[in-house]
């Protein structure tokens, strides 16, 4: 965390920051490094815990925040804001983040509505995939009518970046992180029982399993939507963090995994941001590119390990 605060394309001195409030170091620290560090921690926690919850609900180690098509909904909302000429100036009261949240939540409720009362998880996955394809098709159409400035803004958002987070957005995400953390902690016993099988939940008489699944997915889906609206779609963190911890802690107990997931998710985002913004190398990379480079080998390893164990 200290490295994230002090290192960058320009290194600053913490001693100078506290001794001289009129220095450039102080301005960089307060205007850029401090909010960026807080945002990286909150995004890492959010992606890791939402990924843990979604993987548990779907009982699929490769499920993650992108599974529900929520990122696609946020992308479509952002595309409408940036790519339709004049729309951003006409409806600026909502802001880009507002459009992204509306798109994400709209896709989530459309998914829940089309899944029906039975809420078959295989059907949910298929509908989420179809919504993603529909979103990408509409975005391709919008690209054709967009201006150069709008297209540039949309592409930059899609790369994922911690540059744009304001203190207001950080405060909103902080409050939702607290709520999400407590929510998953309170649902951990239910999720652990759910992993044993839905019959066990029925015997425990804990209420409607379908309703509980919907409530959990709505809470996690809105969480993912808020994250995507603020920093763009963040790749792999929600998938790899729970899998790494399950592998090394040798447990699927949700209550045990919650805190390590939050810590590892925050650490991964801090490292990813440090590498992406020229703090280590002399060039800047998109955050999603760095996270993908870090995440893809881990996912391949997990897949190969799973295949090896299955074939023994």
Written account of the structure:
This protein is mainly alpha-helical and 312 residues long. It contains 14 helices and no strands. The chain has helices at 2-6, 14-19, 24-58, 70-83, 87-90, 95-115, 121-145, 148-158, 167-196, 198-204, 209-231, 237-249, 254-276, 287-311. Helix 3 packs parallel to helix 9 (167-196), helix 4 packs parallel to helix 7 (121-145) and helix 6 (95-115) runs antiparallel to helix 11. The longest helix has 35 residues, at 24-58. It is globular.
**Overall residue-averaged pLDDT value:** 80
Strand content: under 5%
- Overall SS class: mainly alpha
Shape: globular
**Helix share, percent:** over 70%
Biggest pleated sheet: none
DSSP strand tally: 0
Spatial extent as radius of gyration: 20 Å
Sequence stretches where pLDDT stays below 50 over 5 or more residues: none
Distance between the termini: 42 Å
Q: What is the tally of helical segments?
A: 14
Element-by-element helix/strand order = HHHHHHHHHHHHHH
Can I get a quick summary?
Helices cover 78% and strands 0% of the residues. It is built from 14 helices and no strands.
Features:
about 300 residues; mainly alpha; 14 helices
SSE topology:
Elements lengths: L1 H5 L7 H6 L4 H35 L11 H14 L3 H4 L4 H21 L5 H25 L2 H11 L8 H30 L1 H7 L4 H23 L5 H13 L4 H23 L10 H25 L1
Helix pairs in contact: 3-9, 3-11, 3-12, 3-13, 4-6, 4-7, 4-8, 4-11, 6-7, 6-11, 9-10, 9-11, 12-13, 12-14, 13-14
């Amino acid at each position: 965390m200290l490295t994230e605060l002090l290192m960058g394309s320009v290194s600053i001195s913490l001693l100078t920051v506290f001794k001289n409030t009129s220095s450039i170091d102080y301005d960089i620290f307060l205007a850029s490094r401090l909010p960026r560090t807080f945002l990286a921690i909150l995004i890492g926690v959010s992606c890791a815990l939402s990924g843990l919850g979604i993987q548990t609900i779907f009982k699929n180690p490769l499920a993650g925040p992108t599974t529900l098509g929520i990122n696609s909904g946020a992308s479509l909302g952002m595309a409408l804001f940036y790519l339709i000429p004049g729309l951003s100036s006409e409806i600026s009261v909502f802001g880009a983040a507002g459009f992204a949240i509306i798109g994400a939540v709209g896709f989530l409720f459309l998914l829940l509505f089309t899944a029906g009362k039975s809420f078959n998880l295989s059907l949910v996955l298929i509908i989420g995939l179809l919504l993603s394809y529909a979103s990408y098709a509409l975005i391709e159409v919008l690209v054709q009518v967009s201006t150069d400035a709008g297209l540039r803004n949309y592409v930059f958002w899609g790369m994922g970046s911690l540059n744009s987070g304001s203190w207001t957005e950080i405060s909103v995400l902080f409050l939702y992180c607290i709520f999400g953390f407590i929510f998953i902690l309170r649902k951990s016993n239910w999720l652990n029982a759910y992993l044993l099988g839905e019959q066990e939940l029925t015997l425990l008489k804990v209420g409607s399993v379908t309703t509980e699944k919907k409530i959990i997915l709505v809470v996690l889906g809105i969480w993912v939507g808020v994250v995507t609206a603020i920093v763009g779609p963040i790749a792999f963190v929600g998938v790899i963090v729970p899998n790494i911890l399950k592998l090394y802690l040798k447990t699927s107990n949700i209550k045990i995994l919650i805190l390590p997931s939050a810590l590892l998710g925050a650490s991964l985002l801090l490292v990813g941001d440090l590498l992406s913004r020229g703090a280590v190398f002399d060039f800047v990379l998109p955050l999603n590119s760095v996270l993908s480079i870090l995440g893809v080998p881990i996912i391949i390893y997990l897949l190969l390990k799973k295949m090896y164990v299955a074939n023994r």
